[in-house]
Amino acid sequence: MAFLYKMVQVPRTLVTTSKNRDTMAAEYLESISNEHGRQGWEFHSVNEMHTVTPPGCLAALFGAKEVYLIYSVIVFRKPTL
Questions:
Q1: Cβ 9 vs Cβ 32: under 8 Å
Q2: Residue 10 DSSP one-character state
């Protein structure tokens, strides 16, 4: 079976109405999964994407280092017809 995939990047800072910080991430994932589920997308996984950005020429001259960032991406899929 073939699938279409959709990736949704998780914001670096979650803004939520949750009063419980311990469940904030789970509530966000549930909300996004239900929203996309209503559109026919099935939750598949949450993955990390690592990026490296080298410093610009001038910044490197002043000793700037590479910037490493980690992004979380929610993966949805649905069968192709």
A1: no
A2: P
Using alpha carbons only, what angle is made at residue 71 by residues 16 and 8, rounded to the nearest 5 degrees? 65
Which residue's entry shows tokens 């960032």?
69
Tens digit of each residue's pLDDT (9 = 90 or more) over 10-52: 988 776 665 777 888 888 899 999 999 999 999 999 999 999 9
Confidence of residue 2 (pLDDT cuts 50, 70, 90): very high
**Rounded Cα–Cα distance for residues 77 and 80 (Å):** 9
Instruction: Kindly state the tokens that stand for 77.
Output: 């899929």
Q: Residue 69: exposed, middle, or buried by beta-carbon count in 10 A (0-12, 13-18, 19+)?
A: exposed
As a whole number of angstroms, the longest Cα–Cα distance in the chain is 55
**How many angstroms separate the CA atoms of 14 and 29, rounded?**
11
